[in-house]
Amino acid sequence: MTTTAAATTIPFFPPDLFEDDRDLLLDVVRDVATDPAQRFILGERTARFEELLRTDLGAEDVVACGSGTTALTLVLRATGITAGDEVIVPAFGCAPLANTVLGVGATPVFADIDPHTLVIDPDAAEALVTPRTKALMPAHMFSVMADMPRLRALATRHGLRLIEDSAVAQGAVLDGRPAGTWGDAGVFSFVQVKSFGGPGEGGVVVTDDPELARTVRMLRNHGQDGVHRFRHHLIGLNSRFDEVLAAFQLRRHPGLARRLARRAEIAAHYTEQFAPLAARGVVPPPPGTNGRCYYVYTLLAERRDDLRRHLAAHGVDSHVYYPRPLPHQPAFAHAAASDGHWPHAERAARQCLSLPIYPHLTDAQVERITEAVLSFPA
Ligand SMILES: *Cc1c(COP(=O)(O)O)cnc(C)c1O
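Above: the input record for the complex with pyridoxal-5'-phosphate. Below: its predicted structure, written as C-alpha cells.
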C-alpha cells in the first residue's frame, strides 16, 4: 500500500524536468566544446542570448551574469547603495532580498505584504521611508506581480531607485508592460527550478539606463571595461555567464511561451475549482492573467499542515515557500526593527502551501491534484 502510493506520488520538484531536453543539452555541450573559438564564458552565445532577451522585452540593455542573486548585487552596487543606506524589501520572500542588501553593507527594511497577493504592500513600504532610504526592492511572488504602478509612483515621489526582483516572473506582463522592465533595473534567474531555468546557474540584469548597464557590465567581470584587459575601473566581482547555458537557453527560448501558457492554464483550472474552498479556510491566489506568472502556485490554508498531510496521503507532494518571514530568519533578525510587526507576512508563512504546476503535468495529474485538494475535509 505504502509503496504503491509512493510510486505514484506526483512530485513537487519533477526529477524529469529536463528529460525532453537531454539531447539538446548534450548537443550544446558538444557545440561549445568543439567550437574553434574555445570560449566558455561571455562569448558569442552569451551576447546573442542577451540580444534575444533585450528584443523580447523591448529593453535598452540586458546583461547576463552568474545568478539572479548576483544580478541583484550588481544592481545594488551599480546604483551606489552602500553602508548607511536603507533599502525597503518585502518581509515575506526569498533570502536574496535581504542578503544582497546586507552584502553591500546597507540595511534591509522589511515592509509587510498584502494578505492575499503576498507581494509588498505599497502603503506599508511608504510608511518606512526615511532620509536614509535609497531604494525600493519589491519582488514578484510566485504568481502575482508586485503593484509596480504604485511602487513606481512611490519611488518617484521620494526620489528612490526602484529595483525589481522579477527573478520568478519571466514572461509576466502587467498593464501591457513586461516584468523586469518596470524598475530602474530588473533581474531574472535561470536556476533549474525557475520558469526559464536551465541546467546550471545564471541570471540577467535588465535596464533602460545605459549608464547602469555599462557599470553592471564592468562589475560582472572584475571592473574591466571590456576594451582594456586588466584595467580595473571599479571594484568588481566575478559574475560571468556560461556559454553552454547561453546555447541551451537560445535553443529552448522558442518553447518558453508555450510552457508559460501551460502553467497559466493549470493555474486557471486550480483557481476556478478551488474558489468554493474559502468556506473551508483554503484560499487560492486571485484569478486573472494581468500581472500573473505562475512560477509557483500557492494556496493559503488555515490548517496548512493538515492539508499538506491530506495531499501526501493522496499522492500529491507539496512545498512550503516560505516557512518564516525574512525578519524572523536567524541571519537577518539583527537587521530588523526590534519593534517591527509583519502580521500578514507571519500569517503567510503559517498558511502558505504550494502545489505542483510544471508544464509537463498531464491533464490526469492536474485532475488528481485538484481532486485531492477538493477532498480536504472541512
Ligand atoms: C530564485 C530567486 C532569486 C535568486 O536567483 P538565483 O539565480 O537562485 O541566485 C532572487 N529572487 C527571487 C524572488 C527568486 O525567486
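Notes for the reader.
The two ends are 26 Å apart (CA to CA).
The first strand starts at residue 61 and ends at 65.
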